[in-house]
Amino acid sequence: MQGSTLAQRPWLEPSPATLWNWAGKTLAPEPESAGVARDYTRTALARWGMGFYTDDAVAIVSELVTNAVEHAFPHWDAARSGQIRLYLVAVAGVFLRIVVTDPACDMPPVPRDAGPDVRDGRGLAVVEAYSDRWGWNPVREGGKAVYAVLVPHAP
User: Fold this and answer.
1) Residue range(s) defining the domain that contains residue 65
2) pTM of structure
3) Per the domain annotation, does 44 fall within a domain?
């Protein structure tokens, strides 16, 4: 079942006037979740008046969610348990932090040097290219959190 922190907690609904904003969404461990996460990210950033992050943030979210689906849940079937969570935390004018959690703590994200003929393996290179910093941490409840941070740059 998918859930949205914004929908469940309307008193936390962000606005451009607030100094910080956060949003979270639970995603199913299926390929379609990358598209759901992209749409959710676009909506949150537009609500927050932070559209200047949209292109980079959507690319990062897409890669992190896709990695969680493909690597934390390598053999998809309807019986598998666990979920993916997307969190967006923004401090106006300071940073946007994107966090994707999954239940696989035994699989830390490792960038690969994908050659020109390799079909996949570029996800973390994309995250690294679009973010100012990225990394991962184990989650106390089990699993891991992969994050990327974007900061505004002068035009």
Assistant:
1) 3-150
2) 0.79
3) yes
CB under 8 Å to 122, separation ≥6 — which residues?
Answer: 112, 114
Total Cβ atoms within 10 A of residue 152: 14
Domains held by the chain: number: 1
Residue bearing tokens 């990695």: 67
- CATH assignment at residue 38: 3.30.565.10
Please, are residues 66 and 50 in contact by the beta-carbon 8 Å criterion?
Answer: no
CA distances to 124, 125, 131, 133, 144 from 116, in Å: 16, 13, 22, 25, 30
Quick: pLDDT tens for 91-105: 877 899 999 999 887
What is the C-alpha to C-alpha distance for residues 101 and 85, in angstroms, rounded to an integer?
Answer: 5
Q: Note whether residue 155 is domain-resident.
A: no
Buried b (16+ CB within 10 A) or exposed e, 115-127: eeeeeeeebbebb
How many Å apart are CA 80 and CA 72, to the nearest integer?
11
